[in-house]
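C-alpha cells for PadR family transcriptional regulator. Go.
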Amino acid sequence: MKHKLLPLSETMHYILLVLCEPLHGYAAMQKIEKLSNGSVILAAGTLYGAIENLNKHGWIEPVGNSGRKKIYMITSEGKDVLKIEKERLLHILSLYEGSE
C-alpha cells in the first residue's frame, strides 16, 4: 500500500494511535501531549487540519458527538496504515542492532 501520506509524520502517528479509542479533538490533544512526554504539543489548527485530512482519506471517522464536539475513531483502513508503519519502523530499528 503506497500512499502520499506515507510514511506518517510523527503528528499523524500520534493522532491515529490515540484515536484507537473514540475521542474529540481536545481530548486527543491532551492525550498526545501526555503520550509524548510533552514533546508533541499540537495547536488546535494543526490537529483539526490533520483530523480533516485523515477523515478525508478514510483512516478515521466521526462516531458521534459530545455536546458540540465531534468524536472521531480510527477505521480498519487506519489500523492497516498503523500496522504498515509499525513494520516499517521496526525494520528501521532492527538496522540499529549491533551498530552501537
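The CA atoms of residues 55 and 61 lie 6 Å apart.
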